[in-house]
Amino acid sequence: MRLFLTIYVLVIVATVSILGFRGSLTEKEPVEVFNDMDRQAKYKPQAENSFYANGQNDRLPPKLTVSRGNALEIKDVFSTEFTSSTSSEELVLSGKDANGEFSDYFPYPVDFELMQYGQESYNIFCMTCHGAAGDGNGVTKQYGILATSYHDDRLRDAPDGYIYDVITNGKGLMYGLKDRLSNEQRWAIVLYLRALQRSQSAPLESLSTTEKSELGL
Ligand code: HEC
Predict the structure, then answer these.
(1) What's the whole-model pTM score?
(2) In the CATH scheme, what is the homologous superfamily, with its name and number, of domain 87-99+108-201?
(3) How far is the CA of 65 from the centre of ligand 1 (A)?
(4) Residue numbers of the chain with a pLDDT score lower than 50
């Protein structure tokens, strides 16, 4: 009987101490037997740091790091001439002009290097589904992914900004790739996609006479 009473009292004390104080706030400092990671040596953003020559904690991200989302260009943010949202910046970020319409203006100087960057990025990020020629015959087709072919008039006539938006935010079953590709990389892919479209539908008149004779036309 005594044993029963002792256990009975212990159970009541345990129940009250575990369940009874749920939700009640305390102003007292917590008892830190093991202080886990409550206090740790760390570098806070925008703080001073004598280790680096410029005395700042903040470092530039390593080269070729891709910023998540529609981040501003890092080099602009760190520049003393930085001004916030200009209309051309908005176009680079969203592919839309001042009226909110998809723009056909390509915001980077077009050169061979940018085209190569686009090709390289396309082959890594798009080819698996859309195929090397952009005709929708990627290796994932046999698994039921029916990626759109770029070779129809609707997509040939679509403004560059629209293609950029599809890459950024996705469309229908296709997911957006803004967390994996920088703004410039997405525009470079738009450029290469245009080259793919032309490769499948170049008009005969655009060829020179030597090119025509080389092709036996
Ligand atoms: C995982 C497979 C996959 C990848 C990777 C992918 N796409 Fe797609 N894409 C699709 C599918 C599926 C559709 C059709 C979406 C729909 O209409 O539901 C599509 C549609 C499109 C369209 C047509 C949009 C329209 O208006 O019909 C474009 C343009 C496009 N993708 C470009 C790209 C580019 C550029 C890349 C690489 C940056 C890319 N896609 C990567 C699967 C993919």
Answers:
(1) 0.69
(2) Cytochrome c-like domain (1.10.760.10)
(3) 24
(4) 85
